[in-house]
Design goal:
The structure holds 2 protein chains of 2 kinds. Chain A is mainly alpha-helical. In chain A, 50% of the residues lie in helices and 9% in strands. In chain A, helix 1 packs across helix 2 and helix 1 packs across helix 5. In chain B, 81% of the residues lie in helices and 0% in strands. The radius of gyration of chain B is 19 Å and the shape is globular. Chain B starts with a helix and ends with a helix. The chains are: A mainly alpha, B mainly alpha. At the A-B interface, helix 2 and helix 3 of A face helix 2 and helix 3 of B.
């Protein structure tokens, strides 16, 4: 897959942050939609993250080794009468990438002209 | 009515997912479709828990779908060659035929109808029929596909649409016929894969 070799996009950073918050609340594994609701609450908004955007970010994070995923046991899903979930978990590399991303200074916008004095 | 709107959006959305995952290795395509089906279910469950109205749910679903479309397309594009497999080719061909039916067939039929060159001598009501029927047929075919091409009534509706179009204007039959053929191909393939 093509893409930026390193660094996290703002959405990817939000996903990992939300996942770590969930883990600290006792939910070490998560599915895509729960991340969307968590991010909505954090932002204090009403709109959930666009679906394609969210799952593209999850896929990208997994391909880069920042998340790992597995399918939920089909019996559990069947017992609860819902489709099976794809469950994600943040890896150590994901945590390190988040820490690095937070520590890195914001990239200046080189396209912006300096203010006229 | 609003509930019907919500169901229609849900099926259109499912159809979109099918389209942009067509041609992928089967396991990956099924995984993506299952994951997004789970997302849909979770959102409906959340809407019940939080007491959303049917309209709010339908709009939320529509917004999440439409706003995520560019990401869906770029996700697929980023897969590059890895996003294609021989086993997924029939689905991809079917998707191309359907896309052609919608994107090329409809405007062509309408443009011809508006120009009026090919049906001199038809009455105004017939011209209106010529304008409307291709749309109805395409929607029927689309509805058939969006139901995950499992239901026999969908086939019958599609065929009825094609028959009515054939009566109205025989030459525009090509577009819906291709779409129906594609949908039937998918039906056959799905059944064979499901054993």
């Amino acid at each position: 897959m093509r893409g930026r070799p390193s660094g996290l996009l703002p959405l990817e950073q939000s996903v990992i942050e939300a996942a770590l918050e969930l883990r600290s609340e006792g939910t070490p594994v998560f599915h895509g939609f729960i991340i969307a609701t968590h991010m909505r609450e954090d932002a204090g908004g009403r709109q959930l993250t666009a679906r394609g955007t969210l799952y593209k970010a999850l896929d990208r994070l997994e391909r880069r080794g920042y998340l790992r995923s597995r399918w939920e046991d089909a019996d559990i899903a069947m017992a609860e009468g819902r489709p099976r979930r794809r469950l994600y978990e943040v890896t150590a590399a994901g945590e390190a990438a988040l820490a690095q991303s937070k520590a890195a200074p914001a990239v200046p916008n080189l396209m912006r002209r300096p203010a006229q004095t | 009515m609003i509930r019907l709107l919500g169901q229609t959006i849900e099926r259109l959305d499912a159809g979109w997912v099918w389209l942009y995952t067509a041609g992928m290795p089967r396991a990956e395509a099924v995984g993506r479709r299952d994951e997004l089906a789970s997302d849909q279910w979770e959102m409906t469950a959340l809407a019940r828990t939080e007491g959303w109205s049917d309209l709010a749910l339908a709009l939320q679903r529509l917004l999440r779908w439409l706003l995520g479309m560019p990401a869906d397309m770029s996700w697929r594009a980023c897969l590059g060659r890895g996003g294609f497999s021989r086993e997924g080719m029939p689905d991809l061909i079917a998707a191309c035929l359907l896309a052609f039916g919608y994107l090329a067939g409809l405007p062509l039929s309408m443009a011809s109808a508006v120009r009026g060159a090919s049906f001199a001598g038809h009455s105004g009501s017939q011209e209106l029929l010529i304008l409307i029927v291709p749309v109805v047929v395409a929607l029927c075919v689309g509805g058939f596909l969006f139901q995950e091409v499992r239901r026999i009534p969908g086939t019958l509706i599609s065929l009825a649409g094609v028959a009515s179009l054939a009566v109205a204007l025989w030459w525009t039959i090509t577009m819906p016929l291709m779409s129906v053929a594609a949908a039937l191909g998918i039906l056959y393939r799905e059944r064979r894969l499901r054993g």
